[in-house]
Amino acid sequence: MLIDWFTVGAQALNFLILVWLMRRFLYQPILHAIDQREQRIAAELAAADAQKAEALQIRAEFEHKKNELDQQRAALLQQAVETAQAEAQRLSEAARQAADALRVQRLQTLRNEVHNLNLEISRGMQREIFAIARKTLADLADTALEERLAAVFTRRLAEMPAPDRQGFAEALKMTKEPALLRCAFDLPPEQRATLQNALNESFAADIAIRFETAPDLIGGIELSANGWKLAWNMADYLESLENQLGELIKQPSQPETPAAGEPETAAEPSPSGAAE
């Protein structure tokens, strides 16, 4: 078989030209396109990885914030529960204290009412007793006591302390009105003269006197001049005793437990003085 080297050479040259042409116009662009595609795919994968990492980071942050919110919600719920319990306890304690205060106030009010009722009863009895005593003394006081009253008043004039005597004398000198001598009885002229002489001797001067009958004195005599007063009557003793009893009634009663074997004693008010 004969080989046509010219044909073989031409075919080889054509093949080489074809290879060069394919490499120049086909293979290189394909490789370039493949490289660009690979780079694009790599960039996209890198972007996807970055987005995935960012998504993971966002998810982690979301989970962290969610946990923080859950903790804050639990803390707020616990705080609200504790606050509600504390408020409920405070309101319960306040209600209990208010109830105790109201109970104490009611007890105190009841005690005050009982005490005021006892005071009113005691004062009523006191007023009645002293009213009866005054009426009895007023009924018993008659003209038979006139001389005794005048004698007692005369003695009191003689026993008047020097400062009081001097002050009374100055008051008698300074006033232009006559001295007022009030008596529970309508004094007869003899008794008036006795009292006039006693005043003149006591103050060493002629004393102008205006006599006046005052049944409210309940057996007594009262001399007054320019704000000064010298008096003696049984009403003073009654008023003094009444005031003392009133003070005793005002004092709260506090029962005391006597010591073993010691008898109980009750204090009795003593009169400030005795009628003469």
What does this structure look like?
- The longest helix is centred in the first third of the chain and has 136 residues, at 5-140.
- Mean pLDDT is 76; it is low at 253-276.
- The protein is an alpha+beta fold and 276 residues long.
- α1 (5-140) runs antiparallel to α5 (234-250) and α2 (146-158) runs parallel beside α4 (189-203).
- It is rod-shaped.
- The protein has 5 helices and 4 strands, in the order αααβαβββα.
- Strands 2-1-3-4 form a 4-stranded mixed beta sheet.
- The protein folds into 2 domains: 13-111; 141-243, Dihydrodipicolinate Reductase, domain 2, CATH 3.30.360.
- The chain has helices at 5-140, 146-158, 162-174, 189-203, 234-250, and strands spanning 179-183, 209-213, 220-225, 228-233.
